[in-house]
Amino acid sequence: MPPPSGLPGADGISIAASAQLLDRLAAADEAPFIASWIEGVLAGRTRTDASLAVRLLRAYRETGRVDRARDLASSLPSSPASWNPLDAARLAIERAILATIDGRGDHAEAELRLASRALAAAPKGTGLREQLDMHLTQAQLELKLNRVANASNALRLAEHVAERLEDGAWRAPVAMTLGHLAMRLADPRTAAKHYAAALARAPARGTAAMSAHGNLAIALGSIGRFDEGRLHATTAIGIAREMAAGWRHADAHDVLAIVEIAADRPLAALHAIDEALVVLGEIDHPMLRYQLAEHRTWALAMLGRAQAARQWLNKAEKLRADLAVVDAIDEQDLVATRARTLESCGQTREALDHAATHAEKLPEAFVTGSLNLVVGRCALALGDETGARVAVERAALSGEKHGWVFPDRQSSMALWQAALKSGDSRVVRYAERMFALANATGAAAAAVASAASMAPPPSVRQSVQRISIPPSSEDLDAMPEPTEGETLIYVTTPQGVTRVPLADMTRATEGATLVVDTLAHNLRVHDREVSLERRRALEPLVVQLLRRAKEGLSADEILRAAGGPGPESADAEHRVRVLISRVRDLLGDATAIERVRDAGEYGRTRYRLAANVRFALVEPLFSSSGS
Rounded to two decimals, what is the model's pTM? Predict the structure, then answer.
């Protein structure tokens, strides 16, 4: 389709119709064509139509021509009062995106406020696409500013607006963006749903489907659905081989390697990385080369091939030094890879010292869970059982909350054994899941090895390939509880967490003066019973106080447990005092909650259950993520 000689409208095509067509092309990932078409339309003209200008601006950005996008954005009016509200909103959103890319958070926030005001002036029932883009941009900005709660709220608003829009091909790229944001917000299950939605709307053998398969593979692999992840990764490789030879093909092999590392199959990961390096050849792609070197290092460390792991770590560090910008999660990934390599080389103290300084940074991220397992294994090897317990509890709580399933399960068995003695049922639940996954994986591997050693005839070999696969994290979550009369629960006491039949709950809580029953949502102090149904802010706080009975809760942890305004709120200190006062009233004893201070000059104030309180916490065996 050659560009017309003049503006749309000059040849009978209206600007509005052209804009609608361009939006449809944008939804079909045709940004390069859009840019060249509009450039041809506007060639030699001194006046630029607003509708075409904002679409050209978006096309420049989507094709990576960010400098051109900046130049065009700066040439357009700062306050286009004569523009229609939707075009003005689009311009503000594009400027906000560019400001976010450049790290100018204040400018981005100001532009998003302009976009919001412009959309408020738009005719009722219009501007849903602009609203969607505004919320997506807001979420990306909040993530850049590390305001995770605000980013989550913006993502929820974006999802709500997306549901109100008409169906069509444009939903595929929108679903991909929603998936990317969900992954960055440590919500892999939601991300997998969005990637699956994108895949359902993308042409089966196109680049959009290839990208959806790859991202879905990573999301599924991170939550323990390894076989599904492997299937999507190999499908992405097949599409890339046909349609996207070059770095995209190599990247698809790297996706498979990521899934295999998560599945505790380092040899398979190395094979995938070897394929990726062959496909990449001499192609200049520094970021992908860095990622391949990093993933190869980790796989080699898992195999105990210390010298090779060290060599590839040196390559990864050199490649990292050549990269201008790497985000915080990538930096954390390199820290974890370096620590894992030191561990594999037997430099346990060095690995612990390097990893421990980063173990509490980015606590929600997948890689931080793996980093904490390195800390835990090294601490255990050095005889520091307390440090090991703290590290494995951090990993378990992150895994339980987000659904993560971390690699190195076999080598972490001693850690998960220690986690079974935790006083937090969430940690115990997650440790039990890791044992189930490890045992199932071991049983399946033993069955395959046994079948292979028997050298069955071809007809039998086909059946060997269909040996049942280990249950995934989602399978384990979905397992039904035992039949009626055998239903199990967790009961937490000062002695730890135990599984007991529901019928034995009375016996298991005998002698406790404080019993919190999360099944019935009530609390019993001696002979006084109090319903927690109308005290939903206090129930999770009391539960956390019992789970953390020994160490207690800091002010920040109290606010997060109770919900509502967080530590950054203006009245945070007052809210902490009010919440603790209400808990004391609920327990009927002001001395039941102690106020203590951590050791050291900068020790934090904590609130904890008095040591003489005999308590029991009753919880279901299975719970929703994040409980």
Answer: 0.80
